[in-house]
Amino acid sequence: YSAAITAYGKGGQWEKALELFQTMEKRGVMPDTANYNAAISACGKGGQWKEALEHLQTMKKRGVMPATANYNAAITACRKGGQWGKVLELLQVMKEQGVKPDGISYSAAITACGKGGQWEKALELLQKMEERGIKPNQFSYSAAIT
């Protein structure tokens, strides 16, 4: 199911991706982190950041603990939707849940803050990234200064 959901998402058909996700559930297949990741990513690609966050919440309610990749998909969805505040909230939730942000998490957050005119927050995130031993790449630096 994950591959098909991902394919729909990449094709810009987020509604079909979510329909397939629901069909999977109706057939008694319990979604795992990979299935949720595919659905959350599809929402992000379709500009549906609220829907992405709903899937992340549903995941937790059903006892499927989100991994870094799931949070990254939600962070990316919020970044694309211009929701830098939600991105920062997600980073905080990750910390509270004991899920370690990676370079993707930080780069997406830095980009969200930069595009949202929050350059001070972007620079703070860049510093946190380095403090945590995550080596920033050219995209991280570029996002922080634009």
UniProtKB/TrEMBL annotation:
It comes from the Eukaryota. The keyword Repeat applies. PPR repeats lie at residues 1-31, 32-66, 67-101, 102-136. Residues 15-139 form the PROP1-like PPR domain. This is PROP1-like PPR domain-containing protein. Keywords: Repeat. It comes from Odontella aurita.
